[in-house]
Amino acid sequence: METLPSVHLRAMEPEDLDTLYSIENDPTLWNVSTTNVPYSRYVLCEYVSTSKNDIYADRQVRLMIEDGQENVVGIVDIIDFDPRHLRAEIGIVIRQHLRNHGYALATMEMVKRYALELLHLHQLYVCIDKENIDSINLFEKSGFVKTSELKEWLFDGRNYHSALLMQLFL
What we know:
Shape: globular
Number of strands: 7
């Protein structure tokens, strides 16, 4: 079995503004998310200061991922929370220079426990570009299964890409 690095999740703090700014404004990530415009520091500062960090109030929660030395290695989002059907979508970004070190997989293990034990969710799901093999592999290792293909679901500004819907039943 693969040994995973130590990670923990915490709420966003004002000190995370630079990290949020660099991730949200990285155009290489826009094609793997629903974001396609840059965010100003002001908008991100407002987001951090107004977020209640309560999934029931905000219908989403953004958590910072830290390694064992409290260095931020990425961000995980639980979004589109549906309290009636007990499901939510998940998104994860690991900083470029720290990818392929097990942080995403370790984070997914923590998020699964959080979703089941604290949020009492029935399922997590993700919608991934069919060509994003690294993300597909991550979610498969985390127990997600491909349940459908959405044809020409994502548009990168030039081309449409099919996406896979993957679900994890907790």
